[in-house]
Amino acid sequence: MLHDLSIGALADLLNERKISSVELTRHFLARIERYDPVLNTLITATGDRALLEAADADRRLRRGESGPLLGIPLIHKDIFCTDGVRTSCGSRMLDNFVAPYDATVVARLRAAGGVMLGKANMDEFAMGSSNETSYYGPVKNPWDTSKVPGGSSGGSAAATAARLAPYATGTDTGGSIRQPAALTGVTGIKPTYGRVSRYGIVAFASSLDQAGVFARSAADAATVLQAMAGFDERDSTSVDVSVPDYRAALEQPLAGLKIGLLAEFFEGLEARNGALIEAALAVFRSLGAKTVDVSLPHLPLSVPTYYVVAPAECSSNLSRFDGVRFGYRCAEPKDLMDLYKRSRGEGFGAEVKRRIMTGTYVLSAGYFDAYYLQAQKARQLITDEFRAAFTGVDLLLGPTTPTPAFALGAKVDDPITMYLNDIYTIGANLAGLPGLSMPCGFIDGLPMGLQLIGPHFSEARVLNAAHQFQQATDWHMQTPQGYA
Amino acid sequence: MSLTRQEVEKIAHLARLSISDEEMPVYVTSLSSIVDFVAELARANIGAVTPMAHPLVGLRQRLRSDAVTETDQHERYQANAPSVQAGLYVVPRVIE
After folding, report:
1. Quick one: three-class SS letters along chain A?
2. pTM score above 0.90
3. Span B66-78, mean pLDDT?
């Protein structure tokens, strides 16, 4: 079936004119219509527009144009501004917001011939690890619809897993691509900070936010990242470093690859999770990789560090939502202060308010030094330790999450338990490093992910290692029952 | 509780968030647990480290030339505003 094919295989069919983009788009739209009423992966479906974009892609193909993404459908996380299409960020605050411009990621994928099927559900303002903070209701995990898909990019992950699109975009501030990728059994990559433009992405924590891809293989992710990555003048932290040929690097043999095993990742790791990682290591060793034990003594500080830095930046970024220029406004404000407070109080959900208040507290007079400044010091320390580790190893390998997908509702009332889902993913965000999660087995019938972290701008090596692993295993080919 | 109700009310005011009386105890509890959780940082022996300014070594904030790059699209942008009159954003009266 068409939805089983890789991006490369679909591009071949399109380029050889064996199918049209309109046919391919109709195929995925039909799947969305069939499965999404249960999964709730989309906030806004854009079927009519998709068919127009597909017709345009077909015209380009007929003119003899070709390209690895030309005519191939995708889903954008609803955090990316899309010109003329509602961009809600999963929030009541932006329920009526129609973006007046395209994010750079959206513009680049459109230029590459991508056909947008819809905007994916997500945790409100990307704050959450279960997709349960969305104003539009939770996303269900296609492997077990009583379970969460992870978050914040839960809709993108679940849609990719259920094969409602060949690929989807996401953003990752503390694990929001890698954690849901792990929990839904797909491949997700968060590139180096600055590798992909943040222009037009609704800002959460600007020093941590980075856009990336969900796909069903590292090879497909490489194809998409190729089109997304690169310098953008409109993002002041975009880095002007040339983008290597990710696909060309995939076939490089792994002989001599040095994989670092972080002591802090393995301490207290649940036995079945540890066994999956060990089995994956055996595969890497059989491919010629060597393993080296490494330690980052300050890594255990990464979760508290993150939960100071991210809320601090969120409280600043979200101050723009004032009920005046765009977004939700409360009814009949009695004065300006009432307008601000009630518009924000009613427009934001509980977790967003909690993070804004946490951020306001850690930045307030008298607490700034003890929390925010101390967190930025810890962040530097953790980053320095990563850098030192990479002088002896090429990549770090470990679990993506402590457990498989948990039940809907299981952790919503306990923010700290929810925050600890990100224990293995946050480090890469704090240090700005690229990280990838890919399927490596199952616990209780639910997919588990293994994580690779590389030095800055080592996306080609990370994708190469993941691809070689996927050539030797078939975990990434497993699909949830009922979505054939 | 590491935070009192009065402290949380003050934070909510600073953040310009209206929190109902019924919701307030939930925020006092959860914000206290978060503050307790991140307090590990204040206790950590971190020493004389320069606080991070950028995760990539040697990178600075880029500047752009002082040139006009935006076109006037205020009507388009204001289409998203809750209340607009004569090209101006309307808010409750501030000056009597």
Report:
1. CHHHCCHHHHHHHHHCCCCCHHHHHHHHHHHHHHHHHHHCCEEEECHHHHHHHHHHHHHHHHCCCCCCCCCCEEEEECCECECCEECCCCCHHHCCCECCCCCHHHHHHHHCCCEEEEEECCCHHHCCCCCCCCCCCCCCECCECCECCCCCCHHHHHHHHCCCCCEEEEECCCCCCHHHHHHHCCEEEECCCCCECCCCECCCCCCCCCEEEEECCHHHHHHHHHHHECCCCCCCCCCCCCCCCHHHHCCCCCCCCEEEEEHHHHCCCCHHHHHHHHHHHHHHHHCCCEEEEECCCCHHHHHHHHHHHHHHHHHHHHHHCCCCCCCCCCCCCCCHHHHHHHHHHHHCCHHHHHHHHHHHHHHCCCCCHHHHHHHHHHHHHHHHHHHHHCCCCCEEEEECCCCCCCECCCCCCCHHHHHHHHCCCHHHHHHCCCEEEEEEEEECCEEEEEEEECCCCCHHHHHHHHHHHHHHCCHHHCCCCCCC
2. yes
3. 91
